[in-house]
Design brief:
The chain is built from 4 helices and 9 strands. The protein has a 4-stranded mixed β-sheet. The radius of gyration is 18 Å and the shape is globular.
Length: about 180
């Protein structure tokens, strides 16, 4: 996942970074529904991470069209930021739990498959919360949700989220 900023947020920046074209990259970027992601280009933005206040990362970020989601969340931090931040942290750094969970999730393979005992019907363009069970392959407190690449439909998408696992109840809700 790449870092994105909304067009509206970009227009408010002062000074405004140069909006660059993606023509040279020949990218075909699509959203979960399979439709093309509307974007006007990319900018290079400087980002600092709370646990690395002395380090500034210059990150390419897509400038994307307006959606109901990015009106509330104008910047989505992608794995391109998380990977860079992880490379620059040291064991002695005080790393907030949410960043530590993000760092760990990038380097962990599948923890388990979420299953439910009830049939689920998803209508076109629906967003639902699925409560399911997971048998963990390893002990961990948090995971990133994502669609499995093993034989599941490409017509649905699981929104990437960091989810804390409840070891006592043995079930989780995934959006």
């Amino acid at each position: 996942m790449i870092t994105t900023i909304s067009q509206e947020f970009y227009e408010m920046l002062d000074p405004k970074p140069e909006l660059r074209s993606l023509e040279d990259f020949d990218l075909d970027i699509r959203v979960a529904s399979g439709e093309k992601l509307p974007y006007s280009g990319y900018v290079e933005i400087d980002i600092t991470v709370p646990c690395l206040t002395d380090k500034v990362f210059t990150i390419p970020s897509l400038v994307v069209g307006a959606t109901s989601y990015n009106k509330k969340v104008p910047i989505v931090v992608g794995t391109n930021v998380i990977r860079q931040a992880r490379l620059h942290t040291k064991d002695e750094d005080e790393i907030p739990d949410v960043w530590n969970d993000s760092f760990a999730s990038i380097h962990v393979s599948s923890v388990g498959v979420v299953k439910t005992t009830k049939p689920i019907t998803i209508e076109p363009f629906d967003t639902i919360v699925v409560t399911g069970f997971v048998r963990q392959n390893r002990n961990c407190g948090s995971v990133v949700t994502e669609t499995s690449e093993k034989g599941y439909s490409s017509r649905i998408s699981v929104c990437p989220r960091v989810v804390k696992l409840n070891k006592k109840l043995c079930h989780q809700e995934f959006l």
